[in-house]
Amino acid sequence: MSANLRLGVISAAAAFSIWGLAALYWRMLAEISALQLLAHRIVWSLPILFLWLTLSGRWKRIGQALTNIKTASILLVTTVLIAVNWGTFIWAVNNERVLHASLGYFINPLVSVLLGLVVLGERVNRFQTAAIVLAAFGVGYMAYQFGSLPWVSIALASSFGLYGLVRKVIQVEAVEGLAIETSVLTVVATAYLVMLEQTGDGAFTHGSLTTDLLLVGAGLITVVPLVLFTIGARNLPLSTLGLLQFIAPIGQFLLGVAVFGESFTTTHIVTFAFIWVALVIYVVDLRRRLRAG
Fold this sequence. Notes:
Blueprint: H1 3-27, H2 34-55, H3 59-66, H4 69-94, H5 98-118, H6 126-146, H7 151-168, H8 174-199, H9 209-235, H10 238-244, H11 247-259, H12 266-292
């Protein structure tokens, strides 16, 4: 294994592992509302992103992105999508919906394929079609049994799928784009945190030192895996990256069942079985097409 490939595997695996175990972090802050946690996540991410941009000399790319009106407008859309994704995940963790979050990230690759078909007019082969149908059947079965759609799963998969789709049409790399998105969100997040301080509902500096450190550390838990993922993506073939991405939902699934003790019913078993079979078909087909290409 070459040095670049080894670096890519280690970086990507570390990124997906952090994302898979992030629920443990947010659960330690469960006494704080999801909206306030989201605001802290945004605010404390910004200085870390700015530091990374400075150390890597990437500020010029930020300027290039912002001077393009089309790019700047599209980044406003991705700003909303990433905020929805982050906020939904935090809410899911602190409301005992980690299994549903896991389901969302399991079906995310298939949602991306579906969006490519519907929005970009990409061709979908019979294997991809079978995978999408199986995943839809699994989600539909859960909705039928529970009497409602698993909205957490759908919100996470669709927001992240749309985020990836929209970011495909602009030439802005992951960290630079996130820095712009976070800068916009920080204005709103800061105003919200100031309002909470004025009403006496703010959490920062009003609890334990541990809580304050965890709130500040929300920036690290957000930015570090993204940087690691970026390094991995640059050094790995798509097929390897596609396999490693399932580390995250597997970690979330294991946390939900084994650590948090969430209910894992027969309905969950059937639903996840359909999703996992769909993903096996998806991955096998992906590897086949990459080898053929």
